[in-house]
Amino acid sequence: MKIVLLGAPGAGKGTQAQSISKYFNIPHISTGDIFRKNISEGTKLGKTAKRYMDAGQLVPDQLTLDLIEDRLNQEDCHRGYLLDGYPRTVVQADFLEEMLRRKHDQLDCALLIAVPREAILDRITGRRICPSCGASYHLKHNPPLKKDTCDICGHQVIQRLDDKAETVEERLDVYDEQTKPLISFYDERCILKSVDGTRAINQIFNDIVKVLSEVRLHDHTQE
Ligand code: AP5
Ligand code: MG
To answer: Which of 72, 136, 177 to mutate to test the pocket of ligand 1 (most atoms within 8 A of CB)?
Structure first.
């Protein structure tokens, strides 16, 4: 199953992606996580990406295209994947569609986690992430079992640099301008599904499992 997760910054894409990936046994591919890993390793890509990310801007399309193509050609993506944070512009969506078309393939679903802008700020400012495995927590709504410690790998959790209130406003504007048009892009292709992202994390996950199980019934690669 090939799935794209859509939703504003802070909508819960990363939170749900972890559970979806485990449940449906497909790799979770987050371009944000890939960039953060490059930043922590001090690579050339990381240095360039950091300038844009810290300012709440998108990394230029050109830097994302080869990266995503390489990742999707890896062995573990053979039977599907869950994309989180890619595509983020119409240029990226066209690139992905063309890449799949060359393989006589297509996406199965673009799943929107719908959360209104007003609800986002609290989520993002309270977020803590694991710099090692990418797991996402929230001080109030989803704290780690042991204070400041990742449940999965035991690293100390941190606040993302782009999670300051000023940068979040910029990220939300960028989302409205450049990423929101993808909702109609995928609606026109009849693969858009949507879940209410304002509910509790496990309720949203239950809704997602229902939606994606239905999608999987029609997925030829599972036969
Ligand atoms: P990226 O890492 O993708 O960030 P984002 O899209 O801004 O999304 P977030 O990770 O902030 O939110 P999320 O939806 O994953 O929410 P989460 O689950 O953590 O990208 C970062 C930057 O990288 C971009 O700004 C850009 O510069 C660059 N970039 C990445 N990909 C790119 C691309 N393709 N092209 C160009 N540039 C690119 O949840 C948020 C918080 O809410 C957490 O604390 C969580 O615990 C809590 N929470 C989750 N669900 C609930 C709930 N139901 N109720 C209460 N709290 C909840
Ligand atoms: Mg995320």
So the answer is: 136
